[in-house]
Amino acid sequence: MSKLWGGRFTKATNELVEKETASIGFDYKLAEEDIQGSIAHVRMLAKSGIIDAEEADTIESGLHKVYDKFIQGKLAFSDANEDIHMNIEHALIEEIGPVGGKLHTGRSRNDQVATDMHLYLKKHTESLIVLMNDVQTAIYELAKQHTDTILPGYTHLQRAQPVSFAHHMLAYFWMFQRDKERLQDSLKRISWSPLGAGALAGTTFPIDREFTAEELGFNFVYPNSMDAVSDRDFILEFMSAASISMTHISRLSEEMVIWMSQEFQFIELDDSFCTGSSIMPQKKNPDVPELLRARTGRVNGNLVGLLTVLKGLPLAYNKDMQEDKEGMFDTVHTLTTSLQFLAPMIASMKVNTARMKEAVDTDFSNATDIADYLVEKDIPFRDAHEVIGKIVLHCIQHDQFLLDLTLADYQDFHPAFEADIFEKLKPASVLAARKSTGGTAPDAVIRQLNQAKTFID
Ligand code: ARG
């Protein structure tokens, strides 16, 4: 088969080289964007008088036919045509004849592939923003029902102070808010148009880059053609944002796995998100959060992979850059499906409020509050801390909790204790006392929920 660039060559390409240098095996995913970019380009060629209007119409309708064939799975791709750009151009020429060869006037595959990647990532970033919003909505709806559900809050995975389940879940709401904002911000740079940069130096034709940028929904034209064809920052930014978001997803997943263990039993994930064991009939495994936790690894790997590909590359385009694609596609797919899993998994999980209550009733997470109680009686915090440490030790030695002691017991440790200490130590009072902005008291969490609501649509 003759190559689109075959003129300069006297020998056929080595078979393995042809197979391994071809990117069509994965960049066929850019077909839609490639055709979209070509349509904008051909309209510009006609508008600028570079080719005549009739030829441009023929090319544009030919591109539509090629697209229809692609959608119907009837477009035959070949390694000999290397990549999506040449496969489509080849199909176009087959469809409409030699006039199809005019499409590539004033452009190169270098600005073409960069354009396709920008378009692809713009589309997917926009839908990822919607998916993040869906996860936030699921968290918000769940949190709304649990402002009075108390569970132990942990530091070092040791029980620390009681918090509401709403408060705990809303922590993730804000992580996804930042993730969403990172993607929104990256859209500014994803929307730079490389089209018209040519191979690296621009073109001799009187092209109109502003026109194609506008046709494609981009809002800025790369001011430097060499930068335009060799920039992959927008992919790195996307991959970094994706890694951070997967990190959040992995943390939430880990909590779900822990919470669903026999030891915790704080939640139960819906059957539809779990699987069984082939040998142990009693098991219900939280496979989905486990996989989400693990997939952070591949997304991080894709980021490090591309950083490494780009490191030390001279200007401008280098074939190395073809290695940007599979990782990017994988990251888009992984983050997309992870978010798609997460929203319904959160919405359908059962929250075991009784078990959470049992946990706070049998721990010392109210200890800080006795210290605060003594502080209110004008005892320096350091002294109070010491007294409470002794009380806790006493309880541990006598297999008791703070609410099991009598007033006389308390007064043995410090004369300032009065009968109101017991009310103070109830988990609900401990929670309600933390009214500070961003705190876990139901009142504060309701304010937080109202604020959260303004961040989702
Ligand atoms: N398949 C190539 C890529 O993905 C397209 C650009 C090829 N340009 C070239 N001069 N060989 O990077």
Automatic annotation (TrEMBL):
Family annotation (PROSITE patterns): FUMARATE_LYASES
UniProt pathway annotation: Amino-acid biosynthesis; L-arginine biosynthesis; L-arginine from L-ornithine and carbamoyl phosphate: step 3/3
InterPro entries named in the record: Arg_succ_lyase_C (IPR029419), Argininosuccinate_lyase (IPR009049), Fumarase/histidase_N (IPR024083), Fumarate_lyase_CS (IPR020557), Fumarate_lyase_fam (IPR000362), Fumarate_lyase_N (IPR022761), L-Aspartase-like (IPR008948)
This protein's GO CC annotations: cytosol
Gene Ontology terms for molecular function: argininosuccinate lyase activity
Domain Fumarate lyase N-terminal intervals: 7-301
Location (main, coarse): cytoplasm
Domain Argininosuccinate lyase C-terminal: 364-431
Catalytic activity: 2-(N(omega)-L-arginino)succinate = fumarate + L-arginine
Amino-acid biosynthesis in keyword set: yes
Record localization: Cytoplasm
Top EC class, one word: lyase
Presence of keyword Cell membrane: no
Family: Belongs to the lyase 1 family. Argininosuccinate lyase subfamily.
Protein name per UniProt: Argininosuccinate lyase
Organism: Bacillus selenitireducens (strain ATCC 700615 / DSM 15326 / MLS10)
